[in-house]
Amino acid sequence: QAPDNFPPLRDEAAVRVLRGRMKGIQGHCNSCYMDAALFSLFSCTSVLDSMLFKPFLLCDRNVQSILRDEIVNPLRKTGFVRARSVMHLREQLTEKGQCSSFTNAEKDPEEFLNLIMHQILGIEPLLKLQSEGQKEQDCYCYQIFMDKQEDLVVPDVQQLVEHSFLSSDLKLVEIPSCFIIQMPRFGKEYKMFSKIIPSLELDITDLLLDSPRECCVCGDVATLECS
Q1: Which one of 68, 177, 190, 213 is separated from 76 by 20 to 30 angstroms, measured CA to CA?
Q2: What is the pTM (predicted TM-score) of this model?
Q3: What does the alpha-carbon distance between residue 136 and residue 170 come to, in Å, rounded to a whole number?
């Protein structure tokens, strides 16, 4: 455990601390979905550090302290989290979520995020989405759904997000404080893409609802949008 608080790893420090053998979050008993999600959310960014400290209205302080002291701080301090610490969190999630399979079965990352953010910590939804003519919907992360695109062999995240929003006729109602994106699903038998290139920056200009944009013909503010 690391009760002292450590900032997220950046630049050369991230490479030095996180690269090599016995680094990252140790997997055990189908924990890969949770290991990958926790690493993504906390290793190199502080945007969700409120989950570790803020006394939310419904907040379970025991789960919050396990997340902070047994997982996030050791990850940032030494670059390694043992499987026992993640299992401790999984046991608490099983108890709070009335779902016995959190300790042994593989879950969808979205199910894990909804449980820990909504039911256990009581965080407000991070995303507001709207489809044409439909009501606004709140969520904590966005999972990319799309048909196979033959021209996308090794896509980047920007391309996948744009294709997914376009095919689902979705828009972001507002600029999100945090945009958690789940890549296209795959299993042992099928992978939609063998590799996905991380986009270090994400341009959401065309994904925003009622956002002023430039006309591609004349350069003035656009009044029409063609998909």
Answers
A1: 177
A2: 0.85
A3: 10
Closest to 142 measured CA to CA, from 60, 45, 207: 207
Helix pair 32-42, 83-97: axis angle to 10 deg: 100
* Number of other CB atoms surrounding residue 120 within 10 Å: 22
Angle (nearest 5°) at CA 191 between 187 and 194: 130
Across-strand partners of 91? none
- What's the rounded Cα separation, in Å, for the pair 41 and 13? 17
pLDDT tens for 167-221 read 999 999 999 989 999 988 766 667 788 889 999 999 998 899 988 888 989 999 9
How far is 141 from 179, CA to CA, in rounded Å? 7
Structure tokens at 3: 């009760």
Taking only Cα atoms into account, the Rg of the chain, rounded to an integer number of angstroms, comes to 19
Pairing of strands 127-131, 137-139: antiparallel
